[in-house]
Every structure is written in structure tokens, then in C-alpha cells.
Write a structure and sequence with these properties.
Layout: E1 3-6, H1 10-21, E2 26-30, E3 43-44, H2 46-54, E4 66-67, E5 69-72, E6 75-78, E7 89-91, H3 94-102, E8 107-109, E9 113-118, E10 123-127, E11 132-135, E12 137-140, H4 147-152, E13 158-159, E14 164-173, E15 191-196, E16 202-207, H5 222-233, E17 238-249, E18 252-254, E19 259-260, E20 263-265, E21 271-272, H6 280-299, H7 309-332, H8 337-349, H9 353-364, H10 393-396, E22 403-405, E23 412-415, E24 421-425, E25 444-445
Parallel strand pairs: 1-2, 1-12, 2-8, 12-20, 22-25
Antiparallel strand pairs: 3-7, 4-7, 5-6, 9-10, 10-11, 13-18, 14-16, 14-17, 15-16, 18-21, 19-20, 22-23, 23-24
Helix pairs in contact: 1-3, 1-6, 6-7
The structure holds flavin-adenine dinucleotide (FAD).
Flavin-adenine dinucleotide binds next to α1, β2 and α6.
Length: 447
Amino acid sequence: MNVLVVGAGPTGLLLAAELTLAGADVQIVDKATKRSGQSKALTLQPRSIEILHSRGLLGDLLDSPRLPAGHFAGVPLDYTALDTRFPYQLGIPQLRVEQLLEANQDVRRGLELIDLHQDEDGVDTTFTDGTTIRADWVVGCDGAHSAVRTRTGIGFPGRDGRFTAVVADVVVSGVRPDWQLPELVPRDGAVMTLVPLDGGVHRALFTGPEQQHLPKDQPVTHDEVAAALRAWYGADVVLRELRHASRFTDAARQAERYRDGRVFLAGDAAHIHSPTGGQGMNLGLQDAFNLGWKLGAVVRRDADESLLDSYHDERHPAGAAVLANTRAQGVLMVPDDDIACLRDTFADLLAVPEANRRLAGVISGIGLAYAPGDHALVGRRMPDLTLSDGTTVSERLRAGRHVLLDEPDTPRILVRPDGYVQWATDDPEVGPPPNFGHRMTPAASSR
Ligand SMILES: Cc1cc2nc3c(=O)[nH]c(=O)nc-3n(C[C@H](O)[C@H](O)[C@H](O)COP(=O)(O)OP(=O)(O)OC[C@H]3O[C@@H](n4cnc5c(N)ncnc54)[C@H](O)[C@@H]3O)c2cc1C
């Protein structure tokens, strides 16, 4: 087997799909015998929509509610300013994203990894039921408490959570229909949001003084949620039913390296942070999209193994930036009068279009660029342009291979399978470097 993907959350599922597209022999496993049914994330950010679109994976997800705004610590960000076909978030529960990505994939469930050893040629993995699997490469997409990370001995520096909060899916009565966007302004040391989901269910997300004294693994009770709703909304909102509920913190940690020989980390296994702004799942999807084509090319022997180091080089800074912005958001949300003044000042500055565009680019993922090169376009995300023959860049990328764009009166551009510019020139006589620098062959050229 070429690659073992451990963990069938959104990160592992997209990675396995990418590796299969690249022609690799992949197995994906998960310790859970079935999905929990809980959705932590509720939205897809614009860059994640672009990613799925470029593989033809969106299906009917585009029919989901469109939110033309994101937020930074509760201060709205106008996404209509973004240069993308999708200047909005899609209101889609994480469960639906996982179901979509799992279609046509064979996840081996009930396999919990407990040990792993690598040698020069491969990696041996062991599971709780005694199963052993050997693969050329292993990717840990096994979430925040990643066994792949700990068994590989990769450090996870950072800090513990400073607050504990509750996420609960509830059926309530007395909700006003105009509560559409999260209200994240603290009041009396507490924060509460109530967002409508499908089927008469609401997502309650709250924290207050009481939650700070409860351990993270203590079950959330009906009484605790009912009391929090009553304290915030008064007697109008009554809890009728408590569905899934759990606690989370704003712990901020990041794997010190994303690659150790034949083992990689992606998604929450590589980084954890507060969910503020709705970025975690999106960050994991982008890790998978970055690693998938590179590992696929190495497995096919179309690229040197050195290409794999660029996964850490590109994605570690991207993860660090999200940790930094979520920590900054956490500060702006501290319930304190002086910080409320800072929030107001900050909200004022975000009314400046360029400031809004910059921060909307960060939270949406649209603004991310990798290391620059000797042409201004290198390292930048390729917009989904319509080409002279009527096709689009995303259609050309569908096969998951490099695409050479050779359009009249524009630079010649080599686009990587993940939609970033690898090489460009303004000289029509100059071609891309031999084998694109890592012995690659384009699937399609626009000429
Ligand atoms: C309250 C809350 C709200 C959030 N809201 C958003 C949001 O709006 N937008 C957003 O982008 N993100 C959000 N997130 C973050 C998002 O949910 C996570 O970042 C995302 O689930 C990470 O996906 P993953 O695939 O990396 O890991 P996970 O979803 O954690 O999946 C890991 C998988 O690995 C499996 N596994 C674990 N250990 C083993 C093992 N030893 N062997 C085999 N399998 C194993 C697990 O069963 C699981 O299926 C939120 C998080 C929280 C807590």
C-alpha cells in the first residue's frame, strides 16, 4: 500500500480523495465505528468552496444558504469584496461535508491506531484489535489528540485553553427569526450565540463564569444549557430538547514539524486553536489539498521526495497565522470595558475597504499566498478565470494535475494542482522549467 491515512474527518477524507485521484493505492481508517452525527463546523469558507469546486465535488452544496459575511471576533467582514466566484460562506454542517467527501471512498472503521514505527522503506502501524498495516507513507489526520503525532514523537508546543465554552445543538421555543448572525459581544462575563440549523434545531454556543470551573470532559447537562439560555434571553427562550453537546477551549498548539520522514500530520492533528471565525476545518482541508498532489506525484515517481518538504514549509506558516489571528480575536472578546473600546476602534477601522479586504482574505483563505518567486504571480492563488476557449481554470484543474495556461496577451502561467502559481513568465518564447522543477507532466495545456 502506498499511503495509510489515519482519521476520516474532513481532512483525512479530502486527502484520501486527492491521493486516489493522483493514482495512489490508499487506505483510510478511523477508530469510530460510525459518525457521531455532530457537526462542529457549520460553514464552508470561500477558499474551501473553491477547492471542492476545482475537483467537481460541490454537488448540490451550492444550494445551501449563502452568508455574504464572515467575522473577526464578532465584527462583520464583507466577503463581497473578495476576488472569487464564491464571495460568501456556505451554511453547511460539517457532517454534510464529511458525507460528501466519503462518497465513493472505502473507510475501514473501528480501527484505532496505537503504535507506529518507521524504517527507510515504510511505516508499520498497529491498532487496538491487533491489526497491523504497513504502508510506504502514513498521514495522521487523527484530530487534536493525534496518536500518530504522539507516537512519532512530534512536539505540540503552545498553550492550554484560557476559557472553556459549550457547543450544543438544541430545540428551543421563543427564538426571534431575526437572529441570523452570531452575537459575540460579551455581557456580564458571558457570551451566547444561537444560530438556526436545519429541521428546527439551533446551535447554542456559550461560555460564562460557571463553565470556567468545569473540566473539559464533564458532560453538558440539560440544566446547564437551559440556565445559560434563560440568563441571556430571559424566560422567552425555553430549552425543549438537548441534542449533541460538548465543551471546547481556546487552547492554541501547533506541531513543531508537519513531516517526520515517512509520516505527515494534517488538520487538527497539526494545529488546534479557538473556533472563532470558523477556520479549523477549512485549514485542514487546505492542508490536505497541499499535501495530496505532492505525495501523489512522489508515489507515481513523477517527483523527487524533496518536494514533500515543501508541505511543512508552506503549511506550517499558514497554520501559525491562523493560531495568531484566533488568539487576537480571543483578546478582542474578553469581557472588559476597555477591551470593548478597543473592539469599537477595530470595527471602525474595518469600515475602511482595504482593511476589510485584507482581513476577509485572511479568514476566508482567499488571501493566502506561498513563497514568492522570480515573477510577481509565483506563489499566488490562481483566480478561476474563464479562458479563451470558454473553459475555466477550475475545470482544467479537475484532473488534479498541473495546468499550463498559454493565453493571448497574458503571462504564461503554470498552475499547480492545488491552484497556486508555480511558475510564470511574460516572455512568450520561454517555456516552463524542465519537468516543472520536479519531473511533472501537465495534464492539460490551453494551447
Ligand atoms: C465548537 C466548534 C466549532 C467549530 N466551528 C468551525 C467552523 O465554523 N468552521 C471551521 O472551519 N472549523 C470549525 N471548527 C473546527 C473543526 O471542527 C475542526 O478543525 C475539524 O473537525 C478538523 O478536522 P480533522 O479532519 O482534522 O479532525 P477531526 O474532525 O477531529 O477528525 C479526526 C478523525 O480521526 C479519528 N481518530 C482519532 N484518533 C484516532 C486513532 N488513534 N486511530 C484512528 N482514528 C482516529 C476520529 O474518530 C475522527 O474521525 C469548530 C470546532 C469546534 C470545537
